[in-house]
Design goal:
- By secondary structure, this protein is α+β, with helices and mostly antiparallel strands.
- Helices cover 38% and strands 24% of the residues.
- It is globular, with a radius of gyration of 23 Å.
Length: 364
């Protein structure tokens, strides 16, 4: 019987699924969520695509114009600009549900988390399987989304397992089956192994995790150095002692204020926006964070919401970047503004630590 039981939860094509929640008609169409650059037109890249679009060869990171050429004969194909504040809101709701299933909850990203469920499952894989299915059902019922869950004795195997039957998968790997599960998989299925590393192994005629197990540690040391070779050596054997660590989601920081008067005057709103940015920036520095996405929010005189956001090229903590981006978004939002604005807010997301993180996967 294993000492630990760990879930890895991964939402399927997360950004595109969020868009399908907003517009159910998209579920039958190829959907691409895009990050447009400042150059205009189709300049930019695909953030994510749903599985219908993937059948046509569209992938995350692909230039938008390449994706459009793949889908040019599909009249229903839909290309949408990313709406990160909206995705963050959905992620927060999902994570609140997920937390309740965990002894220990570790937030990884908007669409990803680890759960230690050793106590809740009473160290039983049968109970853990039921627990995982209940979690999937609750997310489908309350959030209208699918997710894939990997269940095993450690984080590494659970992460690999969560990708095994995507989308909407549930893969349980009990300790006695870990070796037979991992052996036939590609080396590239190991988290952190990128294309270049996989190609290096392919040149040595090493393609599966079982092939990798036949490479001795000294050969790996020569290729990658001690730290990475130790990770690869252990990963091929399904060995991972890293605990699930309590980490609350730093999904976003935001500030919203009720204005002294309802208005759509650009100067009045810009003045308030600057003050909100100053206040928000203080919080960002206090928590030693950088941000990559900036959003603004209007609560209009009829209490309806209006949001706009923009992804920056690089993470930053500079007040100038925050104010400049927020003001550009304000100008864009006011172009067709009919109603007065009652409340005004600024939000930053896609957060990262100011000091930077050094995990083994960063080396690939």
């Amino acid at each position: 019987m294993s000492e630990r039981i760990v879930f890895h939860i991964d939402f399927d094509y997360f950004y595109a699924q969020c868009e399908e929640i907003r517009d159910q008609a998209l579920k039958t169409k190829p959907v691409c969520v895009c990050i447009f650059s400042d150059r205009g037109g189709d300049s930019g890249a695909i953030a994510t695509a749903n599985y219908i679009a993937r059948k046509y060869g569209v992938k995350s990171g692909m230039p938008i114009k390449f994706a459009k050429s793949r889908l040019h004969q599909v009249p229903a194909a839909t290309f949408l600009g990313a709406d990160f504040p909206f995705y963050s809101d959905i992620s927060e709701k999902a994570m609140e549900i997920i937390k309740d299933y965990a002894d220990i909850f570790e937030y990884v990203g908007k669409d990803e988390a680890y759960l230690d469920v050793t106590k809740k499952s009473e160290k039983s894989y049968q109970i853990a399987t039921h627990l995982a299915q209940q979690l999937k059902n609750q997310i489908r019922h309350e959030i209208k989304m699918t997710c894939s869950i990997g269940v095993s004795a450690n984080k590494l195997t659970s992460k690999i397992a969560s990708s095994f039957r995507k989308p909407d998968g549930l893969t349980v790997v009990e300790p006695q089956n870990a070796e037979s599960f991992l052996n036939p998989l590609k080396i590239g299925d190991i988290p952190g192994v990128g294309k270049i590393t996989e190609e290096k192994f392919s040149e040595m005629n090493l393609k599966t995790i079982e092939d990798l197990k036949n490479v001795d540690i000294f050969t790996l040391n020569k290729m990658f150095g001690r730290k990475i070779s130790a990770y690869l050596y252990n990963a091929a054997r399904g060995v991972d002692d890293e605990p699930v660590a309590q980490r609350a989601p730093s999904i976003q920081y935001s500030r919203i204020v009720t204005l002294k008067k309802d208005s759509k005057d650009s100067e009045f709103l810009a003045e308030n926006l600057n003050e909100i940015c100053d206040d928000l920036h203080y919080t960002i520095l206090q928590h030693k964070k950088m941000f990559k996405s900036v959003g603004i929010q209007f609560v209009q005189s009829d209490l309806s919401n209006k949001t706009k956001s923009r992804m920056l090229k690089n993470p930053t903590f500079a007040i100038e970047d925050l104010k400049k981006t927020a003001l550009v978004l304000l100008e864009e939002a006011l172009v067709d503004q009919v109603m007065d604005v009652r409340r005004l807010g600024v939000k930053v997301s896609e957060l990262s630590d100011l000091e930077g993180q050094s995990s083994i996967t960063n080396f690939f």
